[in-house]
Amino acid sequence: MVRRSLLLSVAWLLCALVGGAVGGPASGASPAHVLVLISHDATPYRDALKGFERALRTSGVDADIEVVALQGDAGKVAPAMAAAHRNGTVLVFSMGLVATQGALAEGRDIPVVAGMVFGADSFKKKGNATGVVLDMPVELQLEWIRRLMPPDSVVGVLYNPAENQHRIDDAQASARNLGLKLVPFQVDTPQTLPDVLDSVANHVDVLWGIPDSVVVSPETAKALLVHSFRNRIPFIGLSSAWVKAGALFALDWDYQDVGAQCGELAVRILRGARADGIAPESPRRVVYSVNLKTARDMRVVLKESVINGAANAFE
Questions:
Q1: Which helix (H) or strand (E) element contains residue 134?
Q2: In this structure, what CATH number is given to the domain that contains residue 95?
Q3: φ, ψ (nearest 5 deg) of residue 186
Q4: pLDDT digit string (tens) for 242-254?
Q5: 157-183 tens-digit pLDDT
Q6: How confident is the model at residue 28 (pLDDT cuts 50, 70, 90)?
Q7: Rounded distance, CA 1 to CA 255, Å?
Q8: Sheet of 235-236, strands arranged across
Q9: CA nearest 247: which of 264, 266, 231, 228?
């Protein structure tokens, strides 16, 4: 466990010395205890934590932050939450699905701000909770595919209908509006993925990856990227990690800003708002990465403006 104490801002201290305060606790009040649960110790999570801490620090809120890294172990949530109740924790910032589900299950009356999760369904029906969800609008993704790929490119997408039929329906409508041809391929189980990939090769010019636990996972990543290179069909990844591994490009979020956005929600709650009275939000700032070697191998010409604007341009 790591503890960080966020000091009052200079402005708050000056006001407190003359008997006033700026949106903070009364003079002499103890710092608000905030528990941060991190599902995994990965760079995006660490970036989000920096943004969260910065938002609380610059707001003038006096908070004592305790950080618990779960390393994917849901069993660590219960003892952390039990200690939170003993310590008078007033808010939990949960990052990732493991942390969020655990915090909501064990939190009882402690408000939760959720971050680094896909979809508000993971928390919006669970009482006193809100957060920032990472769902990337399908129209935005398709706009970028149209921007980077040659005209008249046929876009393939692999999906599990039980998980993503609604997303595919929305994508079909968006593709028509953008003048793109989108061809969906149904994948019922990870075991059927190789056969589906074989059927894709002669029908599409680019493969678009979407969040799907059946199709896109650590177990399927190699098969997807090997298929992409063997058939010279660029794969559109889900994050910069995919691009570094060989995907052509990926849209991503500015995770420090996601954390800052969660911190701003936390400040509102610490100042008296109910979490379940605050609508879930989408991230504010999109970034992207490109793989220049993949572009050369796939004979995709990227404009200099696209390369220069990338958060990462991998060689």
A1: none
A2: 3.40.50.2300
A3: -80, 135
A4: 999 999 999 999 9
A5: 999 999 999 999 999 999 999 999 999
A6: low
A7: 22
A8: 181-186, 154-159, 206-208, 235-236, 249-253, 286-291, 312-314
A9: 228
Q: H helices of 107-217, where?
A: 138-148, 161-178, 193-200
| Spatial distance between the Cα atoms of 199 and 183, rounded to a whole number of angstroms | 12
Contact 245, 225 (CB under 8 A): yes
247 and 258, same domain (yes or no): no
Per-residue model confidence as pLDDT tens digits over 205-256: 999 999 999 999 989 999 999 999 999 999 999 999 999 999 999 999 999 9
The confidence score (pLDDT) of residue 238 equals 92
Do both 111 and 248 map to the same domain?
A: no
Does residue 193 share a domain with residue 61?
A: no
- Domain that residue 37 falls in: 2-134+254-285
Q: Is 6 exposed, middle or buried (0-12, 13-18, 19+ CB in 10 A)?
A: buried
Please indicate, yes or no, whether residues 121 and 262 belong to a single structural domain of this protein.
yes
Q: What's the total number of domains in the chain? A: 2
Q: What angle do CA 266, 66, 119 make, to 5 degrees?
A: 45
Amino acid at 221: A
Tokens of 51: 């943004």
What are the tokens at 104?
């909501």
Indicate the length of the chain as a whole number.
315
Separation of alpha carbons 99 and 119, rounded Å: 15
User: Which of left, alpha, beta for 183 (phi over 0: left; psi -120 to 50: alpha)?
Assistant: beta
Q: Which amino acid is at 215?
A: V
One domain for residues 125 and 259 = yes
Rg (CA), the chain: 22
Give the contacts of 42 (CB within 8 A, at least 6 positions apart): none
The answer to whether 182 and 205 are in contact (CB under 8 A) is no
Q: Judge if 77 and 185 occupy the same domain.
A: no
pLDDT in tens, 53-92: 999 999 999 999 999 999 999 999 999 999 999 999 999 9
| Whole-number Å distance between alpha carbons of 233 and 269 | 47
